[in-house]
Amino acid sequence: MTDFLFHDDSYLREFDAKVTGVTEDGVILDRTGFYIGGGGQPHDTGALIVEDQERLVTKVGRLADDIVHTIEGPVPSPGTVVTGRIDWERRFSLMRTHTALHILCGVIWRDYGAKVTGGDMRPGEARMDFELESMSAEFAEEIAERINAEVAAARDVLVNRLTRQQAEMQPDLIRTKINLLPANIEEVRTIDIQGLDMQADGGTHVANTREVGGIKVVGHESKGRINKRLRIALIDP
Question: Would you say 144 and 215 are in contact if contact means Cβ atoms under 8 Å apart?
Answer without folding.
Answer: yes
